[in-house]
């Protein structure tokens, strides 16, 4: 997350009011509820994991064993089984 200088986006009256509560320290201002993004949505992690999980399941359907998938994706046996089960129950 990048910092934005308050002076670049806020009127001086609001800056003075904020300074009465917190002077010179960093403050996080959360998004409005309706503008919130899900985990991994902003940086693409969610999409990456969905694609990976789909690939794992397709390889499993084509005959790859759990142990082969563990070696290919560097995940635990339990994680591969969880992904296969999750993908199987999507449809």
TrEMBL record:
InterPro entries: c-mor_Regulatory_Protein, Homeodomain-like_sf, YraL-like. This is Mor transcription activator domain-containing protein.
